[in-house]
Every structure is written in C-alpha cells, then in structure tokens.
Amino acid sequence: MSEILVLVDHVDGAVRKPTLELLTLARRLGEPSAVFIGDASQGAETLAKHGAEKIYVVDDAEIKPYLVAPKAEVLQQLVEKTSAAAVLIPSSAEGKEIAGRLAIKINSGVITDAVDITADGDTPVATQSVFAGNFTVTGKVTKGTPIITVKPNSAAPEEVGAAGTQEQVSVTISDAAKSAKVIKAEPRKATGRPELTEAAIVVSGGRGTGGDFAPVEGFADSLGAAVGASRAAVDSGWMPHAFQVGQTGKTVSPQLYVAAGISGAIQHRAGMQTSKTIVAINKDEEAPLFELVDFGVVGDLHQVLPAATEAVTARKG
Ligand code: FAD
Q: Locate the Electron transfer flavoprotein alpha/beta-subunit N-terminal domain: which residues (predicted)?
C-alpha cells in the first residue's frame, strides 16, 4: 500500500486536532505516516491511535529557531526517501507556505484549502469550496507527488489504532533555509476557549453588537465555542484582529457557525461559508446572510443570545 505523509501540527509536542483529521483522510488513500518535527514523546500515542502506521521523527534542535523553510526541506527529503504517494498538510498559514515551498522543491502540483479528499484509484481527489463558497471544485494534482492542504474540521477524526512505529530521521538543512530566524515568540493570552480555526462551534459578533460582545461570549461559553468577529467589529476596536473571520481574517469551517449582528458581506462569507450548519441572528429580515443560513432568527441579538444561553445552560442541568 502506498505511503501517505501527514505533516503533524503540534504545540510544544501536543498534537492539534487538524492533524488527526488528516490521518483519517490519509487512510482513504493509503498508509498514513506522520511526520513529526520536534519531540514526539507526548504525541506519538495519539498519532498511532488515529491511524499513523509510521511516525517519522525529526527532532533536530537546528530546525526550531527557524521559520518554515527547514520544514519544507524535511518533507522534501522524506518524499524522496519514502516515494510517498501524497503529502497532506494542515491548511494553516504556515502549512500553506510549507506546501508551496515543497511543491517547488519536488516539482509537484499543490491544492490548498481542500474540504474533503477521496481516492480515484491511486490518485487523491480534493474538494475545494471557492469564490466565497459559491462553487465546489474537485481537482487532482497531475504532476509529481500530490501535495494537499486541508482545512480544519474537514473530517471527524477516527480512532482506528495503528502501529505507530517510530523512526528517527536525520535531515540536512541548507544554509538558505536558515536565512529567516524566529527572534521572539510570545504565546497569546489563554482565553480558555478553543482555537478559532479548530473549534467545532464558533459564535461570531458583528457591528450589530454595538460593541457589547458579552452576549456573544456568554453564548459561546455555554456551548464551549470559540468567539469570532466581523471586520466591522474588529475595525471598531471591539475585538482584536486575531478574532476576525473572513477574506482578510481567518477561515473557519466548524460544525456550527452562529453569526450575530453580521450582515453577510461576501468578504465575511469567504471565511465561514463551508461551515456545516449556519445560524444567523439579525434584526433585519432582509440581511443577506439569511440567504445562506440553515436557521435564521429575526430579532435583537441582545435578547436572543441571552435567552439562548439560558436555554442551553438549563439543558445542561
Ligand atoms: P454590517 O454590514 O454593518 O452589518 C451589521 C448587521 O447587524 C446588520 O445586518 C444589522 O441589521 C444587524 N444588526 C444591527 N443591530 C442588531 C441587533 N441589535 N441585533 C441583531 N442584528 C443587528 N469583513 C469581514 O467580516 N471579514 C473580512 O475578512 C473582511 N475582509 C474584507 C476585505 C476587503 C478587501 C473589503 C473591501 C472588505 C472586507 N470586509 C470583511 C468587510 C465587509 O465588506 C463588511 O463591511 C463587513 O463584513 C461588515 O461587518 P458586519 O456584518 O458586522 O457589519
């Protein structure tokens, strides 16, 4: 069976959920092999549990201080070593940069932001949602080893139990790949909420909040959701840019997206349109977002959200 390389996204050794989704998708194509750059002692078991037959560990202190270029070189060397049939990478900003660099190095095609992958014989077929979600495109890489980046929440991670055989790999990193270095990294203040791009539920607020995000945050917390914002809310200084969903913010694809006081401009839709279920709360029944939603509530978010929060909290008992 052909080997499918999956680049592991982790935070200080703890594997992030999008990687587990990639392992599940990789099993449709062949035998998943995880590529762990860093200390895999904490994450190896999780990777094996979710289907990694092999785990290539590149624990090289030389790589950590640098930006993405060395990671692309690691993958290049592993593709050459394993003759992998495909490489799957999480669709983060970093993941997409690695994918592009790798494609140049191994002379392959790359598909970014896939929301699903199926197999056509030996060839991966990627589904993308494009033009703000107005079109669904299926595509194949026709040159070289296919490289596909996949958006978070594109598959439910399955626990299958695999061998997870670890192999330490040493790689050679070129001087050119070390030309940009991380000089300082400050972790974002912990909010206790899930990361926006990974969350299964996102509750976002827009200009309609009038700057009062308490109802949005209260409802998000009752559901264990992440909080997002429209650009209007960010530009007004009500929320930091890290919370912005849309064309110039983050792309989210949760199971449930709740938009409160957001009109539904195309640039906002671009960041949330692939959400599985979309709910809008807006006091204007003509708001464009209502064209897209699965459920719509015409009403004032300052009344609807606290009532919804109370109902969710009551159900939890
Ligand atoms: P508005 O369009 O002003 O809508 C507010 C809504 O709240 C209205 O529908 C109103 O009926 C409703 N409302 C008001 N009060 C209440 C209430 N009490 N209860 C319920 N509903 C209420 N936007 C993004 O979001 N993300 C992006 O990444 C992004 N990138 C952009 C990039 C470019 C190049 C450009 C040109 C624009 C971009 N925008 C982006 C901006 C986008 O075009 C819209 O201006 C923005 O999304 C509007 O935000 P909003 O829906 O919160 O505000």
A: 4-187
Q: Atom 39 of ligand 1 has which residue's CA nearest to it? A: 267
Closest C-alpha to ligand 1, atom 1: 263
Q: How far is the CA of 282 from the centre of ligand 1 (A)?
A: 11
User: Residue 69 is which amino acid?
Assistant: A
Burial of 181 from C-beta contacts in 10 A (0-12 / 13-18 / 19+) = exposed
Q: Which residues contact 286 (CB under 8 A, 6 or more apart)?
A: none
d(CA 288, CA 298): 12
Say what the pLDDT of residue 121 is.
Answer: 84
Ligand 1, atom 15, lies closest to the CA of 208
Tell me: the pLDDT tens digits for 161-216? Answer: 899 999 999 999 999 999 998 898 887 777 789 989 889 999 999 999 999 999 99
* pTM of full prediction above 0.90: no
Q: For residue 312, list its beta bridge partners.
A: none
Atom of ligand 1 at shortest distance to CA of 247?
A: 28
pLDDT digits (tens, 9 = 90+) for 31-54: 999 999 999 999 999 999 999 999
Strand partners, 204: 228, 259
CB atoms within 10 A of CB 12: 9
What backbone phi and psi angles, to 5 degrees, belong to 146?
A: -60, 135
Q: Which of 202, 231, 273 to mutate to test the pocket of ligand 1 (most atoms within 8 A of CB)?
A: 231
